[in-house]
What does this fold into?
Amino acid sequence: MTHAGPNRRQFLAGAGAVGTTLVAARGVTAAQRTNAGPLRANALDEVRFGLIGVGERGFDHVRSLIMLDGVRIVALADLYDDVLEKSASEVESTRGYRPDLINGDEHAYRRLLDRDDIDAVIISTPWSWHVPMAVETMKSGKHAFVEVPAAQTVEGCWALVDTSEATGKHCMMLENCCYGRSELMVLNMVRRGLLGELTHGEGAYIHELRFQMKDMDRHTGSWRTPWHTRRDGNLYPTHGLGSVAQYMNINRGDRFDYLTSVSSPALGRAAYAAEIFPAGHPRRQAHFIAGDMNTTLIKTVMGRSIMVQHDTTTTRPYSRLNLIQGTKGAFASFPDRIALAGAEDEHADWDTDMAPWQARFDHPLWTGTADLAAQHGGHGGMDLVMMWRIVACLRAGEALDQSVYDAAAWSAIGPLSAESVANRSNSVDIPDFTRGGWETAKPLDVVGV
Ligand SMILES: NC(=O)c1ccc[n+]([C@@H]2O[C@H](COP(=O)([O-])OP(=O)(O)OC[C@H]3O[C@@H](n4cnc5c(N)ncnc54)[C@H](O)[C@@H]3O)[C@@H](O)[C@H]2O)c1
It folds into this structure.
């Protein structure tokens, strides 16, 4: 499927020229940004943050930000006073000041965007709010950092790309799993050629979350559960896929070409509802259609294959798979293990002793922030490393590790997988959100700190 609509076709017809003019008109020169090239914004002495949505996830971000130098949390917006107060108290007790609190109706967050004392906005709201809030953030002259998945429609993905290009503002999806210790180590190994030429990867979000179905009026399950009645496909593709895409230089030398997707029956949520909710309860009346396990296969332009799975319903241990293989061997996670050609007993078994590998290949971002992450690091430290890195890049005026093209390409797997499932798993094209820029964009560096 390609992105249709007369306006988009007109736009694409002169993509290079029109894109450049549009961007230049908003004060961003071609030197700062070419299509899919790294966006470098003005360096900031101090990064002044606003946060929209300080529920479960937004509070995690507050707790990371208050650990970092060169950061001020200026304002918080949410629908509920209790979560605003909880975050404000956390800032006050650690940093000695209170951010301004913005409440009111569901559009009150615009008062945060209207301010001129905020550089960057972190958006941790329910999925349907991500695109409108990120687009409005960039249009208000601020960088947008949006939770996963960044968009739920292909049109939404394009809106993020178009707005970032037009405004010259960052739009980064907060894919924290790219900053996990294992993921960063594998990126380092891959860049050093340890696995040879990459051929295949696997990523997943396998995490039983049926307990969230008990949330009815507010909290995560209240808005997340209905998605299982709306769409049969991968509802949350980016946690496992993001790191595999970085290993493979997706949007920087390779790109997603097409996918095919298949879902299992949707049984587990109805079974859970029948077990724990009384007769007549809305959860028992809901018609769950998202297959318990969705499996999507992506083919890249360079011919590589990627399997992406989603299952938040089945009782089984958590996994993001994190498998990557090449001509010289393979790495997989949950638990971490490696097999390399030329090892003493290369066909016998995985090597599961990670300590020697970590000693040699732990990523400098991980080792450089280990003390801070150990003190306070949600999700095993990755949240803190991600925020540390974002702040460091913004303060140095450097490109971020995840571009708006990554946000779009990784998130688009959600709606496109549903399209394939609905059409007997026929293949579906994945748009080139870089408009050809992937061919010349340089791979991500393995950075130091
Ligand atoms: N990266 C991760 O590891 C991770 C983990 C958990 C959640 N998430 C993502 O974070 C996001 C939020 O999830 P959550 O679990 O925190 O949900 P949540 O329901 O706990 O929090 C969402 C918050 O947004 C607020 N909100 C809703 N509409 C709003 C509006 N119009 N204006 C202002 N505030 C509004 C709600 O009041 C709530 O406090 C989701 O996109 C989710 O996918 C990511």
Observations:
- Residues 1-34 have pLDDT under 50 and may be disordered.
